Amino acid sequence: MAAYISKRYTILVTMLCFLAVCIWHIYITDFETFKVARIIGGLALGVVEALGPPIIGECFPKHQLGSAMAIYSMSLGAGAAIGPVIGGLVFHWTGDWPWFFKFSAIIVAINLIGSILMLPETSYEHRNDAEVSNNDLSDKIEISNVENVHNAGVSPDTSAAFQLEQVNDIYKKRSFYIEIPCRLADRNPVRLFLQPLVLLLAPAVVIASLLFGVTVSYTININIIFSQYFEGPPNLWSPLSFGLLNICTLFGLVAGIPLGGALPDFLYRRSARRNGIPKLESRLPAFLPGCIISPFGTFLVGLGLKNNYHWTVLALGWLLLMTGLTSNANILLTYCVDCYPWKAIHIGVVMNTIKNSVAFALSYIALPWYQSSGPLSMFGVMAGILFALNLFTIPLYFFGPRVRETSLKYVG
Questions:
Q1: Of 203, 229, 286, 381, which residue is most buried, by most CB within 10 angstroms?
Q2: Distance between CA atoms of residues 155 and 93, nearest Å
Q3: In 153-262, where does DSSP find H-type helix?
Q4: How far is 60 from 316, CA to CA, in rounded Å?
Q5: What is the pLDDT of residues 78-124, one digit of tens each?
């Protein structure tokens, strides 16, 4: 239902909920209460994560969409990477695990303040025309005209100072208000709940969701297995040392930004120059480097664990996998938003649901699978699955327009 309510207020309310959960964690004394708190916190974060792609899609023009989405994808992965580093540092300095949640509460509070000041409302289209005053209507027309020029990639025939003043005016109108500008439409809640499910008939969305979920789950699996491998005998690493190992994933995420952002945006702009109208599939050839890098990194982790290679080899494999998370998963996410921009929120919901479901399932079986099959067999199969999912982008490149035309009959 967040598609029909203010996105900005939805995010702020869910962030408040998560802040309350972080504070709640500090006073938890039993495991059952801890699980309940984690579930509530996960529900709050799921809403924020699902609203990320549509807000980015509405804030940035298409020729910059890939780069913006790459930063978004990198930020999702960076959370998983930075968390263990912070956890290791906090425990090393304090010796008290609840302090991690105190630190999380501080970070969330800072983020909440930043969102209040910097996050604009990106959508006004769901307001009832009968409720819009003449002043509001003129504001909408002004905002729409500026955004149409911005999205077209054409500079208006005005001074830079005037343009800056207009942007500043739009920011104030969309960021500082008391009344929620978007009211809930009179719709059937069951239909609202089921609407995103039609996107399961869009092959691009399904492939992107599975690829995102598999890559994220592999990252979690590696974290789980590495914690057992490095902190157990004979390595006996401290929590701080293992936390610092996660820094390698940050380098992988940053390395994936040009592959998943700048390169596909360049191909998109080049297609626009050559054809007049950009071909949506023009971004997909940028998929090739990550198609090789991610599976190879996954297999390298298994090979390193099998043969007790130096930790730098294992870190390199993890880094390569994270490079693919920022590049390939982001390219498909951008492509999906390009194909169905009016379904951006539903794409976020579907991808978030499938990604987290796949990540939970594969993470749940990680240790039993590792203990029964061994590292080389486990990570070899994981690399094969990841490579096979990457290959599904080939039909999208050659038959994408036909696939979109067919899926529109159902997606709407």
A1: 286
A2: 52
A3: 160-175, 189-194, 203-231, 239-245, 247-257
A4: 33
A5: 676 677 677 777 777 777 777 777 887 888 888 888 777 777 666 55
